Amino acid sequence: MAHANALFHSEETRAQFKAEQGSWTDFLTEIGQTRSQVSRYVSFWNVFGEKILQKVIDADFSASKLAELLTWPEDPKLALLEERKYPTQHGELTVYEMTREQLREVKRILIERQEQRTLEAEVKPVKPMKVQIRFPDLTDPLFIGLTQAARKEQVSEDEIIRRALQAYLNTK
């Protein structure tokens, strides 16, 4: 189907295809497919190539199963070529053995795992950096202002500098 789609839509072969098969709609009716089914096969072929498409056709995949695999959260080539097994309610199955509903359930679980990993990666606490600022000129107005503010707040000069930097970053 993907090959027929390429032939029909190629300007070089379209006229010959029409002469042999008729219109695209007539051809699809003759082979018992809908436009949406064929577009899934074509999308799958464009993404994964002829070798994997042929393998899933040989395994009698429906267009809806192909649609599930087009949005698979992991690399579907591994699932399709290496026949990776995934846990389901009926034991460990490959994508070839699963129904569309099982594919959806496994896909949902894989997406949840990805989201959980992302959340865990974002939660890592940020270790504060120790920054030291030295003023070679102790009569610098900025230094004098910082030391006066530190005395007034009864904290170290470093803490006043940290607070000033934090306030500056929060305004950005």
* Widest β-sheet, arrangement of strands: 1-2
Low-pLDDT residue intervals, each spanning 5 or more residues? none
- Tell me the total number of β-strands: 2
Based on CA inertia axes, which overall geometry fits? elongated
Amino- and carboxy-terminal Cα gap: 55 Å
Features:
single chain, about 170 residues, two-stranded antiparallel sheet, about 65% helix
Structure description:
The protein has about 170 residues and is mainly α. Helix content is about 65%, strand content about 5%. It contains nine helices and two strands. The chain has helices spanning about 1-10, 15-20, 25-30, 35-60, 65-70, 75-80, 100-125, 140-155, 155-170; strands at about 85-90, 90-95. Strands 1-2 form a two-stranded antiparallel ribbon. β1 and β2 form a beta hairpin. α1 (about 1-10) packs across α2, α4 crosses α5 (about 65-70) and α5 packs parallel to α7 (about 100-125). The longest helix is centred in the first third of the chain and has 24 residues, at about 35-60. The radius of gyration is 31 Å and the shape is elongated. The chain starts with a helix and ends with a helix.
Layout of strands and helices, then pairs:
Layout: H1 2-9, H2 14-21, H3 24-31, H4 35-58, H5 63-70, H6 76-81, E1 86-88, E2 91-93, H7 100-123, H8 141-153, H9 157-171
Antiparallel strand pairs: 1-2
Helix pairs in contact: 1-2, 4-5, 5-7, 8-9
